[in-house]
Amino acid sequence: QKEVEQNSGPLSVPEGAIASLNCTYSDRGSQSFFWYRQYSGKSPELIMSIYSNGDKEDGRFTAQLNKASQYVSLLIRDSQPSDSATYLCAVKRNLMGSNFGNEKLTFGTGTRLTIIP
Amino acid sequence: EPEVTQTPSHQVTQMGQEVILRCVPISNHLYFYWYRQILGQKVEFLVSFYNNEISEKSEIFDDQFSVERPDGSNFTLKIRSTKLEDSAMYFCASSATSGRFIIGELFFGEGSRLTVL
Known about the structure:
The structure holds 2 protein chains of 2 kinds.
Chain A: E1 4-5, E2 11-14, E3 19-25, E4 32-38, E5 45-50, E6 54-58, E7 61-66, E8 71-76, E9 85-92, E10 106-107, E11 111-116
Parallel strand pairs in A: 2-11
Antiparallel strand pairs in A: 1-3, 3-8, 4-5, 4-9, 6-7, 7-8, 9-10, 9-11
Chain B: E1 5-7, E2 10-13, E3 19-24, E4 31-37, E5 43-50, E6 53-57, E7 65-68, E8 75-79, E9 88-95, E10 97-98, E11 101-102, E12 107-108, E13 112-116
């Protein structure tokens, strides 16, 4: 079983619509969850972090976490062509503010999102 | 905005040669990482480093790899004898700390593309 699973896509969404990206993880000890955006040939760029169950909103982005279902999602509202990228889900065992250890991020393979003008 | 900088941006080397990739983490960050991404594959953790010693390493980080903080600003990844399968994008990253606690998310540099011929 893959540690972090994402639908590889491509996911095509019309401009202005909501893009919904999903991620499941296998390690029940995971406590920190992140969404990174990666443009082709570029480095991952952090867009959202979430640490507790529920929703977290930041501008057009909403992250949702359900630890019981081992599920993380990212919603992008009012999608723009500039949102076209690969979205990487990443999980970590350690919680922010904890002692060092288990700091490695485990990434999914990413979902390629294309926003159609 | 502070950023992680990496050099070189692209290096081409012959199989069996030694390669050193350099990173300057964000200035007040003390926890450092190397990740790699083989073309078309997921981002993979290699090693984390704090206080001049390795904190965690993955099974990828074998005896051919080493890390060092040779001075107060640089953080290097050395591959002693490169193989074809070492061809990848290598990302350096850093996190803010307070004592022995990670207090900030992980930020990536732009990456160093290594091509082994």
